[in-house]
Specification:
With 232 residues, the chain is α/β, with parallel strands linked by helices. The chain is built from ten helices and seven strands. Helices cover 46% and strands 21% of the residues. The N and C termini lie far apart (41 Å).
């Protein structure tokens, strides 16, 4: 377990944690990120939580094998609820769906307000996460992409504040990704455009009101993606 190698997705997620932070890894599963952070001297203490008994047992076993039982505190419970008041200054929400991430932030709003920054890695529906953050007093101060096989994952660095979104395309493609011209952005855009084209093909010929509205929505979105691609 020592000198463990994280996947590209988890490695990039862990790299967003500021040295000296006291983070909580929400939905920790195997506790890979907490172990990495302590093992590499990035954090002295980490809270690792999960709602399910199985992952909690796996996390405890891995932490014990690494000899980090005093540095990594494992707690069972949903979302931010296991975290004590002012216990951590950062929360990691990685490896879960966008809707679940929004639910955790919403249900744990009081706890979330006490946390300085968040590292968020949705497995899907990143646009849902960005919309929630935008309308609930958060700002995305950095974004990066990680690739594993054919899949490209988005990692959002978030803090409290106000953001200005002048085009809905920024919910689909993070504004910071475009500004910094992330090395994987073109690959991500091509992948997303292919997904949209696939939906358009399925909708063509359908004459229900919902299908027509959805077809227009997808066509408009595809044009926006094309505009960003041309700019890059």
């Amino acid at each position: 377990m020592n000198d463990m190698k994280l996947t590209e997705r988890l490695q990039l997620t862990a790299s967003k944690i500021k040295r000296g932070s006291f983070p909580a890894d929400i939905g920790t599963d195997h506790a890979y990120i907490p172990i990495y952070l302590v093992e590499n001297g990035i954090c002295k203490k980490v809270v690792a939580t999960d709602v399910r008994k199985g992952p909690i047992e796996r996390a405890r076993k891995n932490v014990r094998l690494c000899g980090f039982a005093e540095s990594i505190l494992i707690k069972q419970g949903y979302g931010l609820s296991p975290i004590a008041e002012d216990e951590v200054d950062c929360a990691i929400l990685a490896g879960m769906g966008g809707h679940l991430i929004c639910s955790i932030l919403e249900k744990g709003r009081d706890k979330a307000n006490q946390i300085d920054y968040f590292v968020i890695q949705p497995m899907q529906f990143a646009s849902v996460v960005r919309k929630y953050l935008y309308y609930n007093g958060y700002t995305i101060y950095d974004e990066s992409l990680a690739k594993e096989g054919a899949k490209i994952y988005q990692i959002l660095s978030v803090e409290h504040g106000c953001d200005k979104i002048d085009d809905d395309i920024y919910f689909e493609i993070g504004k910071k990704l475009i500004e910094k011209k992330d090395p994987l952005l073109m690959d991500y855009i091509e992948y997303s455009m292919n997904q949209i084209k696939g939906i358009i093909l399925k909708l063509e010929g359908c004459d229900s009101e919902n299908s027509i509205l959805r077809l227009k929505e997808c066509s408009d979105k595809l044009k926006k993606y094309e505009e960003v691609r041309r700019w890059l």
